[in-house]
Amino acid sequence: MAEKFLNYIGGEWVEPSTGEWYENRNPANWDEVIGLFPRSNEEDVNRAVAAAKEAYKEWRLVPAPQRGKIMQKIGDLLVENKEDIARDMTREMGKVILETRGDTQEAIDTAYYGAGESRRLFAPFVPSELPNKFAFTMRVPLGVAGLITPWNFPSAIPAWKMFPAIVSGNTVVIKPATDTPYTVLKLAKIMEEAGLPPGVVNVVFGSGSKVGIPLVEHPDTSIISFTGSVDVGKDIAERAGRYLKKVSLELGGKNAVMIMDDANLELALNGVLWGAFGTTGQRCTATSRLLVQEGVYDKFIDMLVDAAQNLKLGNGLDESVDVGPLINKGQVNTVHSYVEIGKSEGAKLLCGGEPATEGELEKGWFYKPTVFADVSPDMRIFQEEIFGPVLSVSKFKTFEEGAALLNNSAYGLSSAIYTENLLYAMRAARDFEAGITYVNAPTIGAECHLPFGGVKNTGNGHREGGWTVYEIFTDWKTVYVDFSGRLQRAQIDDAE
Fold this sequence. Notes:
Blueprint: E1 7-9, E2 12-14, E3 21-26, E4 29-38, H1 42-59, H2 64-80, H3 82-93, H4 97-117, E5 125-127, E6 133-141, E7 144-148, H5 156-167, E8 171-175, H6 181-193, E9 201-203, H7 208-217, E10 221-227, H8 230-241, E11 246-250, E12 255-259, H9 265-277, E13 287-293, H10 297-309, H11 329-345, E14 348-351, E15 370-373, H12 380-383, E16 390-396, H13 399-407, E17 411-412, E18 414-418, H14 422-431, E19 436-439, E20 455-456, H15 469-472, E21 474-482
Parallel strand pairs: 7-8, 7-10, 8-9, 10-11, 12-13, 12-18, 13-16, 15-16, 18-19
Antiparallel strand pairs: 1-2, 3-4, 5-6, 6-21, 14-15, 17-20
Helix pairs in contact: 1-7, 2-4, 2-6, 3-4, 3-6, 4-5, 9-10
C-alpha cells in the first residue's frame, strides 16, 4: 500500500476534508506509485486561507532581515537535501536527474537570493516641495498570496513564488500541480524544519476546479500568482478581476532560435538539442521553432536529424539518458495529435513522430524526438504551443525575414540567435519581440537573479525572478511627515 500524504495547514499535517486521495505515479514507469495525495476541496482551501490570514498578523511585523535569516536556513537545508529532492522529482516528473538537480539548484539560488533581498527592499526617499516636510515610500506586503504552480518545474517555480512572497511579509496558500505534489510537500517540510512559523506557508493538494478556483475566488486572498496555460490564465484573470485582486500570470511560449549563415554550427546544434529536447520539450521556454538561414539550412538539418536520432530515451535516474518521458498519457496523445496535424499540413517529417515503446520504454510515456522541416508560418505546428519534443524548422533569406518569422507568434517569452556578427546580435536584442533574448545560447537557461517573463500572450506584464518579483508581492505606500508645526498645502502654498 502506497504511503498517504497530508495537506499542510496552520503548521499541521492534516487529512483532506473529503477523506479522498489520488495516486501520484512515475511517468517513466507507470506501475510505480510515488504516493497517495489529498483530493481536497473548498473546505480545505477555506481552512488554509484562514490559517494564512491569522499568521499574517504577526508575520508582516517580523523585520524583513529576520525573514531573510529563515530563508538562508531554507537554502542551507535545500543544499543538504538536494540529491534526495532531485531523485524523487525525477521519479514523479520524469525529467533526467541532471535537470532535476538543476531544478533543485534553482530553488537553492532563489532562497539565498531572497535572504539577501530581505535587506534590499529598497524604496525611494524624495524631497518634499514644502519646507520642514519629508516624503518617502515603503514596500508593504499584500496579505495572503494564493499560488498555483505547474508540474514541469516542481521545485523551481514554487520557490520562485513562495520565497519572495514570504520574504516580502506575505503568507501563502499554494496549490501544487496534481502531477507533481511530492516535491512541494518536501519543500514544505524543509521550510517547517527551518523554523518558518505555523500558517506562513500552507499547502493544499487537489485539482484546479476543487482547489484552484476556490483559492482564486476566496475573498481573503490578496494576490494570485499562476504559471500555466493561456486559457487557464485568462480564466483566472477574469475570476480574480471581479474582486480587483492583483494577478501575476506566466503563461505559454512558442520560442524560436534563429541561426545565421555565419553561426558556429556545432555550438548552435548543441543549443538547439538542449532547448528543444531538454525536459522532453516540456518547458514554457523550450525551443519549439528553429529558423535557419538558407546558406546553412540543408547542412544544419542533416546535423540536427542525425543528432536527434541518437538521443537516448529512458528513465531519468539513469545518468546516461538524454530524454525522459512526457508527464502522462494525455500529453502523449496531445503531442501525437500535433504530429499528425503537421503531417496533414504538409510539413516534412524528418525523424520521430511516434511514441517510443521499445523494451522498458513501454512502461512509460515516451515520445521520440521529432523534427519537421519546411514549416511555414500558417501551419499550426508553427503557431501553437505543443509542450513536447517536437521541433519545427523553417528557412529564411535575410535577417529581416528571419526576425519577422520569429515575431510571427501570439507568444513572446524567449528567443535566441546564433551568429558571429555583433550587428545581428544587437539587432536581435532590439528587434525580437520577447521578454528574453539569448545570443549564442539556447532559449532555456534563465538565472534566478534576473527578471523572467514575456510579452503578448505569454503573460500579463509581470516579471518573476530577480528584484522584479518583489514588485509582484508588495504594494507601494507613500508617507508624508510634516514637522513644520503649521498647515502646509501642497500645490497651493508653493505656487507663484
